[in-house]
Every structure is written in C-alpha cells, then in structure tokens.
Amino acid sequence: MHYPLLSLLIFIPLIGAGAILAMRSSDTEQKNHNARHLALWFSFVELLLASLLIFNFDGTTSAMQFTERYPWLPNFDVFYHLGVDGLSVLFVYLTALLTPICILISWKSITDRVAGFMAAFLALEAFVIGVFCALDSILFYLFWEAMLIPMFLIIGIWGGENRVYATLKFFLYTFIGSVLMLIALIYMKTQAGTFDILSLQNFTFDPHIQHWLFLAFFAAFAVKVPMWPFHTWLPDAHVQAPTAGSVILAGVLLKMGAYGFLRFNLPMLPDATATFAPYIAALSVIAIIYAALIAFAQKDIKKMIAYSSVSHMGFVTLGIFAGTQTAVEGAVLQMVNHGIVAAALFMLIGVIYERMHTRDLGRFGGVVQSMPLYAVFFLIFTLASVALPGTNSFIGEFMILAGSYTIFQTATVLACSGVVLGALYMLWLYRKMIMGEAEHDDVKNLKDLDTREKWLFIPLIIMVFFIGLAPNQTLAVMRGSVAHLTNEKAIILTVTEGAETLENAKDKNASKNNTKAQGHH
Question: Is this prediction's pTM over 0.85?
Fold first, then answer.
C-alpha cells in the first residue's frame, strides 16, 4: 500500500500548530508548558517520517518518488501534485532535523506568547517542506508565499528592538520577487498548457522569451539565496530574529532560492541559463569576497555570521551555474553543509547571548576559561565553516571549485580567495572571543553548556564528521537527479571568451570544417 508520506509531512505540523492554538488554560505557565511539549512531540514525529523518507529513497534514479497527484482546481489545470527527487529529499530531512532543535533552543529563551511561537514554527516547517515537495508550479508558489507569514511573525513578534524594520524589509524584498515569478508561471502556462513542473521542464520555450522568464525567476530566487546585491535584508533579519529564527533562516530558508534555480531556471530555461551564467558567476564571486571583507568589519557577532552566509552561498550559486555534474553535486552538498554549520554557529551565539545579553565582540575574550565545552563545540563548527579537511564543508567547496574551474577559470581562482578570507575572519573571531584572558567579571562567571544545550549540538557534530569522512553516502542520494539535470540539458558552458554554449561552439566548428572542405575542393 502506498502511504501519502509527503502529505503527512506537510499536514502533521499544521495539525500540531492548530492543536497548540486551540489549547485553553487559565494558567499561563501550564499553557506554555503544554505548548512546548506538544510542539516538540509533533516535530519528533515529523523527524521520524522524514527519516523513513530518506532511508527508503533510491538515489540511483532521477525519477520522482513518493508521488501523490490529486485534482485541486481542475478547471485551471492546477493539481495537488507532490514528489521528491535527489535535489529535494535532503532538504526535507534537513528541515525536519532542525525544527526540533529550534524548538529546544527556544525552550527557555521564549517566555512570551509561547503557544503562538511554537505554532508559527510548526506552520513554517509545513510550508517549507511543501516548497521542496511541490510538483505543481502554482502549489509551489502558494507554499513559497505562505512561508513568509510565520517567518514574518517569528521575527516581528519575538525579534529584537528593530524587528519591525527588519520584518518589513524581509517581506518586501521577497514578496516583490515572488510576484514576478507568478507572472512568469502564468505566461508559461499559456505556452505549455500546464502548470506541472515536470511537464514544463520538458517543454522548449522560445529562446528570446527564455531570457525574460529567467530574469523573473532570478528576481525571486536571488533575493532568497541571497545573492549580492540583493542580500541587504539578511543581516538585519538575522540580527533581529530570535535564535531559532536565525537557525531556520540560515539552515533552510536560504536554500530555497538555490533550490528554485535547480528546479526552474536550469532545466526549463537552458538557453537563458547559458547566456546569464557568466554574469551570475561574477555576482557569486563578488558575494564571496565582498561579504567576507564586510564580515571582518563587524562588531556584532551575529551580523558577522550573517555576512559569512552570504559569502558561503556565493560558492553554491557558482557551482550551480557552472553546470557540471561535479559542481552541481558540490553545490547541493554545500547547501546541506551550510545548513548544518550556520545553524550551529547561530545556536552558539544564542547560547552566549542568553547568558550575557550582548553580541558585542569587544565584550568577550577568555570564554574558554569558564565554558571549556562551549569552546570545544565552537572550535568544531569554526573549523567546519573554514572547510578544514575531514569536515563536511571541505568536500562541498572542493567539488564546487574543481567542477567550476573548467567553465569559469578566472571566477574560480578568485573564489579561492574567499576560502582564505573565510578562514581568516572565522579564526580571528574564535581567537578574539574564546581565547585569551577574561577581562570582564561576567565572562569569568559564565556557566558552561547544560545538558539540554549539549544534546542539541551532538546531532549536528555527527553530521559534520559523517559527511566530511563519508561523503559518498550523501552524494549517492542526489547523484541520479544531478546526472539527469546536467547531462540532458544544454546548460554547460565551454571555456571560451564570452562563455559560448557547447551548441554554438559545435556550430562554429561545423562551419569551419565546411569552409575548409570547400577550399580543398
């Protein structure tokens, strides 16, 4: 019997959110207690289902698996169509893994309107998983937009002092790009006669129209990544968001933009992809270097990690638009890696902020003396962030650079400087914050990680070394889908000036051969 596993993954969190909001109790403490535990149990059930999904997934094929398809708005050719492949199943699991961690990291820090916070988080989990599972473009769009609502509430209600400014900026940036995407989807329906994503991938759109469609999708996805210069909303959102908000934002939400490029731009618009790829490679390199330099100048630790996210996601977009199988596999793997490492770093910052109520780097120093275990965990994720061999990020960055070099030689060489800059600012942060002598009494009296906090980092540490030491286990999940994407669509560029497509290069060679043949005769 085929169980609707993907529907369960989407609707179980929504049922949990509804149950939490429906609770009635005159005792506020009891209500908060019930809300926390209910959210945690629902998130654990979700993680169990996601584990079943990934353990039963066949990575050798590019076909969609666990598919469900039901008429929804048949008069408009809109279907409730779900499925996962190697490009999406990893992010479904990552979302399910990070959600209970987010709930537990907020266990003590969120004390006001706890039920609303927990309900918002479960709703966010449902909508994000919906984005990764949707195979109807209108369904994809609805989940994409619905996700904004709980994230808007999480930052706007439980965020910092300037949370209203940050939420409005976040909402406007993402919403404007999404409107352009909707226009593109409607136009594609008029041409292809369907909203089905798989059918759209097999339809050949006019090359001239492809460029406009590409730009419409780019507006939606580049903001979400975020790519330079569309990144300015991210540092504000991170700084104002509660710790759990930053964890899910960096861990999963930023991956949605890169996933959109893989699901829409590359397979549906190969001609436009070949045209714009060199420009996106240039933007990626600017993001890598510029964001790394800006991170150096930050005094707010959280803002520094936010800018590091912009820099690291630059590697992802470089790999995606290089279009080789090695580069795309590296990009997908690095999306997972960044989700793990960035989430852990934001959690570490949240732990210290709960104790000191400041993120000013100048107030720290000598943390290792009072929090030795914290210092060890911080070191592990710092080394993972700088892509030390043996950690997960090394494999991803190495594959991106190796796979991109044959396509974008200059951009890849410049991107290597981002690896060096990333190591410099992260190790400088560690030395400045953790090492040395404690100059302030509140640092000397800090309490090390408690039992709850220790266990939150353990699964992420396991993932860092599991992927770092046995990457083929993760790469095998995506290999079939990436091979299909890169081999069957003409998106790979030749190493020539102007980044001509392989097709154009072949035409030129054929023309030269004809000329030579005529001259010979």
Answer: yes
